């Protein structure tokens, strides 16, 4: 907690919901950072850290943790630390006292994770109790029905390394069985997988397919498992998936999610920041051109917003404004520099360092950015920042002679822990192969070998710049968006799709040019025999600024106070949710009486459930995810929820409206959900404190109630007047209470 200058201990700080599942009272940051200290040549500090882990870390804790996070951060950290300690001891440099204690801890943790795989399918539960496992009455877990693809498919490196270091095959066999299930459940016609899968019957719960959150490291681990373990099965599966990704998901420089059963249409117009790892993975595969293109797009987005937003639209506007200091862009920058030796990528790395120092560095570390538009900090520095960001940036600028080890003898896990390639000889590959790969199908020249830049781009030292230059004008200044000329009409009300999406689904791409015009480009399908090939039309477009406070692509909702004495005159601008009831389909909106949730954050069971039943609950943002609050209030019987921002003084006039997002399993949330900034929310809180019954209408637009038509929500000054009027009424009517 770099703003508070103290560590975050599970149970000692307010719960943040699922984010805290990474914490298990096992000194997470210390373990996750062990091999980083060696890479940075901090060998005295490393030895001291190993002693601390050996003396102080205990795993027999009655804590429910994420299987995925505990595997990549803690098991991976212990294995990386053990391998570094063994290396330094063998070199007689340090740690002559070390006797494999970190490996013993890793083995202990491995056996504590194994109960999560006790399902009919072999896919793991998403959470496990470190002391009681999954199915014990004391475990407080084991009721989950599904997990993400990456959560089930990102175990093989750590589990295989543990098996080969301990000669206990159960770990590698277990992780491989989970990968076998994911491969078997892929869409056979196109080799795509979904994002969330039922752990009991293997049915897909979320069928969107991409390379970002929920799937990302599944692909990474197939490729790296081949590199680390030498088993062709993993390479064949990766290559089959990669062909599908490049055919359906990759629209250079974009990577857009598609439906796994109907992949010809993109199902969303935004990308999340986790996909920034993908150019680095493409480098490992040898596909440098699309890696350079996507990385350049990400760099342009980063330059516009100082950091890569947690999500951004296909026209590069902010979609989710947080930046928790994620390292994936730095990771891809490192791999591209290693592959090309182009000093351009050193400049990119320099810009990352400068942004971190200028906008994230605080007295006690580096603070996550809660909103890249305002620069507001969050009291959070995740362990992956030290495990990955520091490591990749240091390696980017260091020479081989500066390192205490040969980095090319190791593979990076998804948490950037170092596993030696020598593990491939510790055990022969598993003979079972469920891949059924059709030889020759989709294979390219580099499907089974690592290419050289000289072979790819003979006698062309400027090839990276040539590829990049085509993508340097992707972003227009500011938050502008395109309005097409009137000759084209789109059925927006029928499809609710953006014009850019419709053009894209027609096979057309808009490329901004330097003279404020736009080139419309289409590429014929590979199977078509059209003689046109490439074609382009150039036309002038009008650049339109979006309304103040409105994020492109998000339609604001209205919260209208309809009970006396307001009679509909108070209308507040609200943000929508991506889950729950779709208010755009409710012709007359949804009405309800307000009640304050207890607890106000609604992160735990609702204590005033009798008052909440059938009412419109008010709950404050923070401490846990919106989906967790919505579930708790829906279970308490609320007819809807209005979330109020916890940032003092925020209002819709000054802040960019956003959509609340779920947690991957929000299909059972059916009540309406809206979000108000703090000043708008205060109007409702003041009204509720004065009047016994306050009724509101949630709708896409205000309702005309007969006195005077209210077309526009209240401005900031009107909000202040409304709040003052309510408080004045309180003093006049109830001076004693006031």
How would you explain this protein's 3D organization?
The chain has 738 residues and is α+β, with helices and mostly antiparallel strands. Residues 437-441, 476-499, 512-518, 521-552, 707-711 and 729-738 have low confidence and may be disordered. Helices cover 36% and strands 16% of the residues.
Q: What is the structure about, briefly put?
A:
The protein is α+β, with helices and mostly antiparallel strands and 738 residues long. It is built from 23 helices and 31 strands.
Topology:
Elements: H1 28-32, H2 34-39, H3 43-56, E1 64-66, H4 67-90, H5 101-113, E2 127-129, E3 146-148, H6 149-153, H7 156-166, H8 170-184, E4 196-198, E5 204-206, E6 208-209, H9 216-229, H10 232-249, E7 250-251, E8 254-255, E9 258-259, E10 262-266, E11 270-272, H11 278-285, H12 288-305, E12 311-313, E13 318-320, H13 328-340, H14 344-360, E14 361-362, E15 365-366, E16 368-371, E17 376-378, H15 383-397, E18 410-412, E19 418-420, H16 453-456, H17 463-469, E20 481-483, H18 492-495, H19 499-505, E21 508-512, E22 517-523, E23 534-540, E24 542-544, E25 557-561, E26 570-574, E27 590-596, H20 609-612, E28 616-620, H21 626-635, E29 640-644, E30 673-676, H22 678-690, E31 695-699, H23 716-733
Parallel strand pairs: 27-28, 28-29, 29-30
Antiparallel strand pairs: 1-2, 3-4, 4-5, 6-9, 7-8, 9-10, 11-12, 12-13, 14-15, 16-17, 18-19, 20-24, 21-22, 22-23, 25-26, 25-31, 27-31
């Amino acid at each position: 907690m770099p703003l508070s200058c103290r560590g975050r201990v599970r149970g000692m700080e307010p719960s943040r919901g699922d984010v805290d599942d990474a914490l298990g009272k096992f000194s997470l940051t210390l373990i996750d950072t062990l091999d980083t200290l060696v890479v940075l040549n901090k060998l005295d500090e490393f030895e001291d850290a190993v002693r601390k882990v050996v003396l102080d870390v205990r795993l027999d804790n009655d804590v429910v943790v994420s299987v995925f996070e505990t595997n990549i951060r803690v098991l991976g950290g212990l294995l990386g630390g053990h391998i570094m300690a063994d290396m330094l001891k063998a070199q007689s440099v340090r740690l002559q006292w070390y006797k494999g204690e970190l490996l013993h801890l890793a083995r202990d943790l491995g056996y504590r994770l194994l109960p999560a795989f006790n399902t009919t399918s072999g896919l793991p539960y998403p959470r496990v109790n470190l002391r009681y496992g999954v199915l014990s009455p004391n475990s407080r877990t084991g009721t989950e029905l599904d997990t993400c693809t990456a959560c089930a498919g990102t175990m093989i490196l750590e589990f295989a390394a543990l098996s080969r270091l301990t000669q206990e095959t159960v770990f590698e066999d277990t992780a491989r069985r989970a990968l076998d299930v994911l491969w078997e459940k892929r869409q056979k016609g196109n080799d795509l997988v979904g994002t969330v899968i039922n752990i009991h019957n293997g049915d897909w719960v979320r069928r969107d397919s991409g390379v970002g959150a929920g799937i990302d490291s599944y692909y990474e681990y197939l490729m790296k498992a081949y590199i680390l373990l030498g088993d062709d099965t993993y390479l064949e599966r990766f290559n089959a998936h990669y062909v599908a990704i490049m055919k359906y998901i990759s629209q250079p420089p974009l990577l857009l999610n598609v439906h796994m059963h109907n992949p010809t249409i993109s199902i969303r117009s935004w990308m999340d920041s986790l996909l920034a790892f993908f150019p680095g993975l493409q480098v490992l595969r040898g596909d440098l051109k699309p890696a350079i293109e996507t990385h350049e797009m990400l760099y342009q987005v980063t330059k516009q917003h100082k950091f890569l937003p947690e999500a951004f639209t296909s026209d590069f506007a902010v979609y989710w404004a947080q930046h928790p200091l994620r390292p994936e862009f730095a990771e891809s920058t490192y791999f591209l520099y290693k592959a090309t030796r182009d000093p351009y990528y050193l400049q990119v790395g320099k810009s990352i360092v400068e942004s971190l120092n200028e906008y994230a560095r605080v007295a006690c570390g580096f603070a996550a950015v809660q909103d890249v538009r305002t620069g507001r900090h969050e009291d959070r520095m995740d362990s992956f920042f030290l495990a990955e960001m520091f490591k990749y940036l240091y390696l980017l600028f260091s020479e081989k002679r500066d390192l205490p080890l040969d980095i090319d003898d190791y593979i990076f896990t998804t948490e950037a822990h170092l596993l030696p390639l020598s593990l491939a000889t510790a055990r022969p590959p598993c003979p079972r192969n469920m891949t059924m790969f059709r030889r020759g199908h989709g294979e390219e020249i580099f499907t089974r070998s690592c290419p050289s830049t000289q072979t790819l781009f003979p006698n062309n030292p400027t090839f990276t710049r040539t590829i990049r230059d085509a993508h340097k004008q992707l972003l227009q200044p500011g938050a502008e968006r395109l309005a097409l000329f009137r000759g084209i009409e789109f059925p927006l009300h029928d499809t609710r799709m953006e014009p850019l999406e419709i053009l894209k689904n027609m096979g057309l791409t808009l490329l901004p040019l330097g003279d404020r015009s736009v080139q419309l480009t289409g590429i014929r399908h590979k199977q078509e025999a059209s003689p046109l090939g490439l074609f382009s039309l150039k036309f002038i477009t009008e650049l339109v600024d979006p309304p103040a406070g409105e994020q492109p692509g998000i339609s604001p909702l209205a919260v209208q106070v309809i009970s006396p004495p307001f009679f509909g005159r108070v209308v507040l601008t609200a943000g929508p949710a991506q889950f729950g009831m779709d208010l755009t389909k409710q012709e007359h909106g949804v009405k309800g009486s307000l009640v304050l949730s207890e607890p106000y954050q609604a992160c735990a069971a609702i204590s005033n459930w009798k008052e909440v039943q059938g009412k419109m609950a008010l709950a404050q943002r923070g401490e846990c995810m919106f989906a967790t609050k919505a579930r708790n209030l829906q279970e308490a019987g609320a007819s809807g929820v209005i979330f109020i921002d916890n940032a003092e003084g925020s209002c819709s006039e000054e802040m960019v409206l956003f959509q609340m997002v779920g947690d991957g399993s929000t299909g059972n949330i059916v009540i309406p959900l809206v979000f108000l900034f703090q000043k708008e929310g205060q109007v409702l809180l003041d009204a509720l404190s004065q009047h016994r019954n306050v009724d509101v209408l949630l709708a896409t637009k205000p309702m005309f109630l007969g006195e005077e038509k209210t077309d526009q929500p209240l401005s900031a000054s009107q909000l202040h007047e409304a709040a003052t009027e309510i408080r004045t009424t309180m003093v006049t009517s109830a001076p004693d209470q006031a």
